[in-house]
Every structure is written in structure tokens, then in C-alpha cells.
Amino acid sequence: MARCALLREECQQVALLPPEMIESIVDWMSPLALAESRWELVSKGFHQLMRGVYRRKTMLCSMKGPDAAFFRQFVDGECSDQQYRRLLRLVQAVFPNIVHLQLEAGVFCALLQVLNKMTFPSTSPLMPKLQKLSLLLGAPHGRLSLNTPLENFCLARRLASDLQSVAITVNVRDDSTDCTSCDLRRIARWLVELNGRTSSWDVDLRDWTANAQGWFSPSDVTALRDRSFIGLVRALMDVGAPIGSLALHDCLRQSPYMLIMTRKQRALYMYDEFKMVQNLVIGYDIGIVAPAFAHLETFGKLQHVRLEYCHVLFKPDFVTYLQNAPNLETVTVVLPHNWEERVARCTEGCFRNADYFCFKPEGWPVFHRLLPSARLEFEHYPDHQFVGAH
Question: Which tens digit of pLDDT belongs to each residue from 368-382?
């Protein structure tokens, strides 16, 4: 009897908690735990409380947060029917309020399979507030299965109505089975139906291959289309993807303070397709530049070029490469970490080597002559993270 009285007393104390405190406690729960709690069925008051909590769950990332272990099962391919039912419950409860959705390839594949079996409301999309969709493709983010309904364009059109931005990050590796150019083409075609061609896409290609992204012969471009930047960029452009920003990074490059004029240097060959975007970000040492053929083609879309800690071996050729971009406004050179301090401490004249001329204004003597309407800027971010091998 004493134990029952104690429990009754505790229940009465909990019942006296103000709704704001209960809502604050519930707000700490993960999206998956909230979706599975079904607390909105307790009473009308709890239903209103849960609606307020769900409205604040506007961002969902499959890699971080308390539900990362749950999403990792879809990436590893170790999910059962029960996990798919849990994912369906999460979609029904949380997704109508999501504004930014960041998913790995394996989770994206599972999500489409779940959505393909759902019944959508006839008047409104499932995710009416979704504004940004970020996808991570390639190892270690899982792969697309063959039964992923990427040919269901009706599903894409009814998923969201206010999508404004798409961000795609692709890890390019020698073992390219996780994300091939065909996979990227299928995803891009589905996303084009999702948000049309009016918004802008941010594409980030990260190179982990041993052979780097140098020049490829026409036959090699076809054979290595799954492992080359140019093959993936052409796959996106073939389906009409509105690429606004293109980032090209070398994840295996050495520190920018290492001398690079060696026989086995990793250098990026600059194709003309890289100029068919508004913002071009290069985190890759630039080697040979595409030759200028006698044609009148111009690239009026390119406005900003950003060189992140990268060496430019042939600076006059690179400036000439940008010459047929009439609307180019700025070329920004991001200096390496602690550049000014290292140059000031050096007494041996190491930084007078030609490798480092691209980090100095006097290393670009032909810039203003060939690009009179563009600005050459130098930026130094002491705390900016270096992308590549140290």
C-alpha cells in the first residue's frame, strides 16, 4: 500500500509540471524516438505539444546526431523489414517539417523505396517546407541498389514544392562501384524532376584515385568515366543539371608547402566543361590547361574562380584559359595556412622557388593584361581546414 501511495504521489507531481517544461524535456529526444513514442495519441493536449516539437525539427542529417547508428544500417546494407517500418514512421512524423535534409547514398536509396510504397496526399507534397537537399555519394556512404525507384518521376514531383538548393558530394575512387557515372546520371535525372532547372546545384567532386585527374585521351575518358571528374561532370550536364557551383578537390594531395615539380606530381587537367558554371572552386594543383582552339565559343556563365591552396604550374596558360569568360569578376587565391608567418621566418630563400609564385601577386604578371575586367584577390584564412593529405 505504501508503494502504491508513493507511485500515486509521483504521478501527481508529474501531472503538475507546466506544459513548457514537458515540451522542453520532449524536445531533447531524437527524431526517431519521437516518431516511435506515439505521444501525440495520448490526448489533445499532447497532440498540440508534439506538433510544436515536430515543427522545430527542421534539419535531419543521417551521419550525425543520436540517430546516426540507425541510419548506418541502411548504409551498410544490414537492415531488416522492421528497420524499414521504423523509417516509414520517421518519414510520416518528421519529414513534413524538414527544411534541410542531408542523406548518404544508402539512406537515400532506402528512403525512396519507402516513399514509393506510401500514399501521398492529393493536395500537398510530403515535404512542403524542404528547401535544401544534400546527398553524399560514393564510399563510405553506401551504394544505390538496382531496385531504387529513380525512374518514378511522379514520386519526385510530389515530394517537395519549395526546393531551392541541391548539394551533391561525390567521392571518386579507383573502386567506383559505389557510385558510377550511370548512377550519378540517374540521380541527377530524378532530382531535375524534383526541383526543375530553375534552382542552382552545388557539386563537390573529391578525388581519391591513385592516377589523379590529369589528361585523358577520348578512349580513356570513356573507359574511366566512373573515375574521372570530366566523365562525372558530363554525365550531369547530359541530363540538364543546373550546376551553379563546381568544386574539384584532391583528397590525396600533399601540403602546399611541399615542392611539387616532381615526376609523379598530381595535377588537374582543365577541361572547358569546368567553365560552364557560375562558381568554380579548385582545391587541386593545376597542371596542363586545355588548348585554345580557333572557335568563338564563350563561357558567359562563369563569374568567380577560387583557388584553394593549389599550385598553378602554368599561370599564363591558366589565365588564357579564363579569357573566354567575359563575365568573370574575381579570381581568388586562398593562401596556405600560416603563409605570411612562414615566409617571414624563412632565411634560406625557399619561397623564391617557382612553385610558390602562384601565392604572390608578382607571380601573375599577365593577369590584368588578359583579364582587364576581373579582379585578382588573395585571401588568408588561418583556421581554414586543408582538404588533402598532410
Answer: 999 999 999 999 865
Residues 69 and 49 in one domain: no
Q: Is residue 9 in some structural domain?
A: no
What size, in residues, is the chain? Answer: 390
- Domain contains 345: yes
Domain check: are 233 and 295 in the same one?
yes
The domain in which residue 285 lies consists of 58-380
pTM of the model: 0.88
323 in a structural domain = yes
Amino acid 245: pLDDT: 96
Q: Are both 30 and 64 inside the same structural domain?
A: no
Amino acid 28: pLDDT: 81
Question: How many H-runs (helices) and E-runs (strands) does the chain carry?
Answer: 14, 12
- Cβ–Cβ < 8 Å for 371, 322: yes
Q: Do 193 and 133 share a structural domain? A: yes
> Is position 139 within any domain?
yes
Residue 246: strand, helix, or coil:
strand
In the chain, the percentage of residues whose pLDDT exceeds 70 is 88
**Closest to 250 in 3D by CA, of 286, 214, 208:** 208
Cα distances from 76 to residues 64, 70, 90, 106, 141, in angstroms, run 16, 11, 19, 8, 8
105-115 and 68-76 are packed helices; what angle lies between their axes, rounded to 10 degrees? 90
For the stretch 327-340, pLDDT in tens is 999 999 999 888 88
Tell me how far apart the alpha carbons of residues 69 and 133 are, in angstroms, rounded to a whole number: 21
Give the residue from 47, 56, 51 showing the smallest Cα distance to 28.
56
Q: Whole-angstrom Cα distance, residue 306 to residue 294?
A: 27
CA angle 75, 76, 78 (to 5 degrees): 115
